[in-house]
């Protein structure tokens, strides 16, 4: 830790003179729709709000509290950053600014973004794992730890909270972090708004949104509040064979029975049909032509179709000033069809699952949470809850050819029913035992059950049915010291865990039948120390030093007979620094800077077989964990003059070299890019218009935006677009 502390001091000494920090987001609203004293922001004489330096957050403690007073790393990204002059398609648009978080845009809508938090989740080759994702308290992550970000509708998202470090374990199967999105409330008056944009590579997006409050003059007195958002996104893609069309719809309705009880209903729909998958490229292919798709993508017409529909209800009731409950229930369905580039050989192994994935899943869950809060000289808060999650899926696999025709559904190669369920209980408390000291403690017990029923049993393909149960108890402890009214010091520590996903459990390295019974959850020991400093009325600095030691890391084992298998191979260690600085120069001008140093290494050597027909390789002790840049930085300078007026934002992003495989023989080079966003807003009676232009990668840098970790065919690289432009119009009318 002394090395980390020394690096932190160097970072501060070098960075602060040049820091031009942060977000000019509007005040955060609490669940009741009113601002608390902690989140209120001062106003200039013009009436425009200044950036919030001390927002109220819910993630981390599940109760509304100032982020400044919590012993954990938690950042808030507000409406202006999420929606203003943004395509509102990918989380990378808004979350690249968060320290400790790395979001790699694959330029591939068939595989979603790659998101890692302090290095957790970096090895995921598709979807998101190791990080829990929530939308309005409803999980977007399945109980086995696999999640998707595409169903977050950014067009109606008012804020996103990002939690890293030890307290992430209180949300369950997520060692690395928690991302929670909150949908905006409808405005006080009925408002119809829309967005049209178009740009490079055949990109277009249209959105229409309607919201309002019925039965009263505002969200507090009105019994019914609603917002409905529908959008269509289309792109031809930067790379060949990467076209995509996405339809999204979301709705949120809140009915307030009285000042103590309300019911919120949310519905989300995502449809992506025949989304093309260009696959990764080898290093030689990137040099030759970064826009190409691998020949196998054309040969087998690799593509993916998704239909995801889910809805939920959240009921809140306050029994007294000290006691309240929250009841959550949700359900959904997900259908997926994916065509892979599995070669058609003369002899296909009997164990191969084929090149077409057919998935039909139903999922749901429920949770009950009770909160007790006492005020006075020694405030105390206690939260206790129980949660149940489950998904049931029918998974089939087919050959990706029929006779001589490639890229079509052929014969059946896999047929099974899979079920994963999770039952958890947790408790969390915060106690300000003196005026200067506050203690936070939490514990969570999680029981995750896996069950598979194999219906495709043939000679050479034995019965792979089986069941497994994993149990974990995760305690967390944090201590906060209020050194002054503007400086808080803190330390926290705890244990986290990450179960294998069903994909990793499906097959055994020894080729025997049944689930991979030897595979266990990886467990992590996490510590964090830091400070939060309101240096002036207009400046805030956050610094965190952290270390995570992961035992039984889940890593590749073999790739034989068309089956990838996994093992608990070795331990890893992650050490790093996160620095964020925010400064506002007034109502018009603000700046932001964040920096992350992360050193993630294997603590022991291990062996694995990278692909069929090749010898086992040795991963040396001390190798860097792939998919994780050692240094990342983000800077932003924003000038917003309000209505009517002009706004401009300049942002810069730096990513260090990223290794693509465990043996550290392949890597994507470091890169730096700059983006510019310009908008002009004006009011015409009840009509508000905003014209905007966005220029990404202004210098036209050639770079690889994402790597596919340990890709079996050594097609590790997914290049990103050169200079590209988006122009658009936002309009809203108040009735």
UniProtKB/TrEMBL annotation:
Q: How does it sit in the membrane?
A: Multi-pass membrane protein
Which interval of the chain is the signal sequence? Answer: 1-22
Task: Name any one GO molecular function.
Answer: siderophore uptake transmembrane transporter activity
Q: Where in the cell is it found?
A: Cell outer membrane
Keywords for this entry?
Cell outer membrane, Ion transport, Iron, Iron transport, Membrane, Receptor, Signal, TonB box, Transmembrane, Transmembrane beta strand, Transport
Domain TonB-dependent receptor-like beta-barrel, chain residue ranges per copy: 271-689
Please give the InterPro entries that the UniProt record associates with this protein. Answer: Beta-barrel_TonB, Beta-barrel_TonB_sf, Plug_dom, Plug_dom_sf, TonB-dep_rcpt-like
Q: Which residues form the TonB-dependent receptor plug domain?
A: 69-178
The UniProt entry, under Pfam families, shows:
Plug, TonB_dep_Rec_b-barrel
Q: Does the keyword Signal apply?
A: yes
A GO cellular-component term linked to this record: cell outer membrane
Q: Where is this region: Disordered?
A: 24-46
Q: Could you tell me where the Polar residues compositional bias lies?
A: 26-46
Q: Does Cell inner membrane count among this protein's keywords?
A: no
Q: Which PANTHER family match?
A: FERRICHROME IRON RECEPTOR-RELATED, FERRICHROME OUTER MEMBRANE TRANSPORTER_PHAGE RECEPTOR
Homology family: Belongs to the TonB-dependent receptor family.
Q: What is this protein called?
A: Iron complex outermembrane recepter protein
């Amino acid at each position: 830790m002394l090395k980390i502390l020394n690096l932190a001091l160097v970072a501060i000494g070098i960075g602060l003179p040049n820091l031009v920090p942060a977000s000019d987001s509007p005040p955060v609203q609490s669940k009741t729709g009113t601002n608390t004293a902690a989140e209120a922001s001062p106003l200039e004489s013009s009436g425009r709000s200044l950036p919030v330096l001390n927002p109220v957050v819910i993630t981390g403690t599940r109760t509304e509290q100032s982020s400044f007073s919590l012993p954990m790393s938690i950042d808030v990204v507000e409406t202006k950053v999420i929606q203003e002059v943004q395509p509102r398609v990918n989380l990378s648009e808004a979350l690249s600014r968060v320290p400790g978080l790395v979001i790699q845009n694959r330029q591939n809508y068939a595989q979603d973004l790659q998101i890692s938090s302090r290095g957790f989740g970096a090895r995921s080759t598709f979807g998101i794992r190791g990080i829990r994702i929530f939308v309005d308290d409803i999980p977007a992550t399945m109980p086995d730890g696999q999640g998707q970000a595409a169903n977050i509708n950014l067009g109606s998202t008012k804020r996103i909270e990002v939690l890293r470090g030890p307290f992430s374990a209180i949300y369950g199967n997520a060692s690395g972090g928690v991302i929670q999105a909150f949908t905006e409330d409808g405005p006080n008056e009925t408002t119809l708004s829309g967005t049209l944009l178009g740009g490079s590579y055949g990109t277009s997006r249209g959105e229409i949104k309607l919201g309002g409050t019925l039965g009263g003059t505002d969200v507090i007195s009105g019994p019914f509040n609603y917002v409905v958002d529908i959008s269509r996104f289309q792109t031809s893609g930067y790379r060949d064979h990467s076209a995509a069309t996405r339809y999204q719809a979301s709705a949120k309705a809140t009915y307030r029975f009285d000042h103590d009880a309300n019911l919120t209903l949310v519905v989300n729909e995502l449809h992506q049909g025949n989304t093309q998958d260009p696959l990764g490229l080898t290093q030689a292919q990137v040099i030759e032509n970064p826009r190409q798709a691998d020949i196998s993508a054309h040969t087998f017409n690799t593509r993916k179709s998704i239909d995801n529909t889910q809805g939920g209800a959240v009921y809140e009731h306050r029994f007294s000033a000290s006691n309240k409950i929250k009841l959550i229930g949700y359900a959904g369905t997900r259908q997926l069809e994916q065509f892979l580039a599995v070669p058609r050989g003369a002899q296909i192994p009997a164990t191969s699952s084929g090149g077409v994935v057919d998935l039909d899943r139903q999922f749901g869950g429920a949770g009950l949470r009770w909160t007790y809060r006492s005020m006075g000289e020694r405030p105390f808060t206690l939260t206790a809850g129980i949660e149940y999650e489950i998904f049931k899926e029918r998974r089939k696999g087919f050959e990706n050819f029929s006779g001589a025709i490639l890229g079509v559904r052929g014969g059946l190669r896999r047929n099974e029913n899979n079920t994963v369920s999770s039952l958890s209980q947790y408790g969390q408390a915060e106690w300000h035992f003196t005026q200067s000291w506050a203690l936070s403690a939490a514990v969570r017990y999680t029981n995750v059950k896996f069950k598979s029923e194999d219906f495709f049993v043939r000679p050479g393909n034995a019965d792979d049915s089986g069941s497994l149960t994993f149990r974990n108890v995760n305690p967390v402890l944090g201590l906060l010291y209020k050194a002054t009214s503007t400086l808080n010091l803190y330390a926290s520590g705890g244990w986290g865990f990450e179960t294998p996903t069903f994909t990793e459990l499906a097959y055994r390295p020894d080729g025997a039948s049944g689930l991979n019974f030897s595979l266990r959850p990886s467990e992590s020991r996490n510590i964090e120390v830091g400070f939060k400093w309101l240096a002036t009325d207009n400046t805030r600095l956050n610094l965190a030093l952290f270390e995570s030691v992961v035992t039984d890391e889940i890593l590749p084992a073999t790739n034989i007979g068309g089956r990838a298998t996994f093992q608990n191979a070795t331990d890893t260690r992650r050490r790093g620094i996160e620095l964020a600085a925010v400064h506002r120069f007034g109502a018009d001008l603000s700046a932001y800077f964040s920096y992350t140093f992360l050193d993630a290494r294997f603590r022991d050597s291990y062996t694995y077989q990278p692909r069929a027909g090749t010898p086992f390789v040795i991963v040396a002790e001390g190798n860097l964990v792939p998919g994780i840049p050692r240094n990342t930085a983000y800077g932003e300078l924003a000038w917003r003059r309000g209505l009517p007026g002009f706004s401009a934002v300049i942002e810069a992003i730096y990513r260090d070299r990223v290794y693509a495989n465990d043996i550290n023989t392949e890597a994507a080079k470091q890169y730096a890019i700059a983006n510019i966003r310009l908008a002009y807003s004006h009011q015409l009676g009840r009509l508000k218009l905003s014209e905007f232009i966005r220029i990404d990668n202004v210098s036209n840098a050639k770079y690889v935006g994402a790597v596919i970790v340990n890709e079996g065919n050594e097609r590790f690289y997914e290049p990103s677009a050169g200079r590209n432009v988006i122009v658009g119009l936002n309009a809203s009318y108040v009735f």
